[in-house]
Amino acid sequence: MIHAVHRMTNRAWFAIGVAASCVLAMAAAPPPLAAQGMSFADALARATQANERILGSAAGVDRAHAELSAARGRRLPEVGVIARTTRIDNEIVIDLDPIRQAMLKLHPTVPPAAIPPFTKQVQGESFNNATLNATIPIYSGGRIQAGMRAASDAVDAAEAQQRGTVGEVATDLATRYFGLQLAIQNRITRQSTRASLVRHVENARSLERNGQIARAERLRAEVAAAESERDLQQAVSDEELARLALASTLSSDTAVTPSTALFRVGRLAPVDSFKALAHVHNPALARIVAEQRRAGEGVRAARGELLPSAGLFALRELYTKDLTILQPKWAAGVQLSVPIFQGERLARVQGAKAQERQVGLVRERAIRDVELLVEQRYRQVEIARAQLVSLDATRSLAEESLRSQNLAFAAGLATSLDVLDAEQALARVQLGILKAQFDGDVALAGLLEAAGQSARLPTYINAEAGR
Fold first, then answer.
1. What is the CATH number of the domain that holds 295?
2. CA distance 174 to 43
3. Which of 207, 210, 385, 427 is the most exposed place for a label (fewest CB within 10 A)?
4. Whole-prediction pTM value?
5. Is the residue at 431 inside a domain?
């Protein structure tokens, strides 16, 4: 009887020690969120300003704007100077000696010396020219206007591409930002479990020396402690890798500590509302629509090559010393070009029409793909929400099981390993809840990206965190 009371007392003290070690380990573990950490909204702002993919897409927009300026410049006058220095094989001379000979025959009394030679040098062997030329288009068959509209559509396509890149980076950032939060929480849980198992090994060795437990039970405790040590080292490595991944997304050379916790996604609007947003704001669809308009302008430009073109021209000689008697100092006029036949231009029209049809089919396919993507990611969010509801119930059961095992152990009706198994089961449930939150957060980021609403992700996060 005394021995039984002594055994129950030891077990009670052991249960208290295990519980205390859990509390101490959780208190000693570093907090999951650092006060000086970076919020998700700040991280998204930094990525938008520093991420190379986004900066590259911004450069693409700048290039499209430059090409639009170039297209607009085609309707402006073209002014240039052409300067040449030339040497020819022989000077150019106008020789009218036959007329001089005829005059001498008609007037034989006139001495030949009285009539000068009828020759005039028009151009020497070497001469220089400098001409100022100016042309301005009047009518080009609509090609200039079509080119300007196509360049404007190219700007729209580049801006849509930039929005798409921002959305992709935002989803990547959410994956890595909250992935680091998950890794931190996993490491904290592993630290708590390891501390509990280390304390358990110490108590198991004490109980074995007193003959209260078998050697096999102590060995099982040591094996469990060794496994927890491996799990902790893996968790630490995962956390370090997650920090590097987040820093890479932020284009930062220093580690970043996230301050926005994992959150639970609440009930969303109907999926059809997200599909409607995607039809209007999805960057991929917007880019294809712009490309479709651009292809239509390509057809108009190709047709314009079959029409006449007209323009004004003017020139002014800047260097007049070597001008001949046949060259004016200035000239101005109207020029007209009328294409009669060129098979290449007809083929270009057909090719532009084919491209327009191709882009139209791509757009139809893209609409279906985007709707499917929205549906898929919406369901991923709902699955994560359902998992959280299930895991909440499982956590209640695990907590009750741990409480029962502690009471049973204190009464001598359960072993220490039963208590530790219950603790590990609770830890697994807690990690499962964190993983389900992570899955829901990432799925929400992907859903907003598909709907073209990635910029609203911080607003969603703040709204969900405030619930």
1. 1.20.1600.10
2. 9
3. 210
4. 0.77
5. yes
Q: Residue 130's beta-bridge partner residues?
A: 83
Q: How far is CA 270 from CA 378, 382, 386, 437, 460, in A?
A: 9, 11, 16, 20, 16
Decide: residue 90, CB within 10 A, 0-12 exposed, 13-18 middle, 19+ buried.
exposed
Q: How far are the Cα atoms of 265, 345, 456 from residue 451, in angstroms, in the given order? A: 17, 41, 11
Beta-sheet strands, E only, within 193-308: none
Residues sharing a CB contact under 8 Å with residue 371, sequence separation 6 or more, in sequence order:
275, 278
Task: Name beta bridge partners: 134.
Answer: 79, 314
What is the C-alpha to C-alpha distance for residues 171 and 199, in angstroms, rounded to an integer?
A: 42
The answer to whether 229 and 10 are in contact (CB under 8 A) is no
Number of domains in the chain: 1
pLDDT digits (tens, 9 = 90+) for 57-83: 999 999 999 999 999 998 899 999 999
Whether residue 209 lies inside any domain: the answer is no
The answer to whether the beta carbons of residues 162 and 6 sit under 8 Å apart is no
pLDDT in tens, 223-235: 888 988 999 999 9
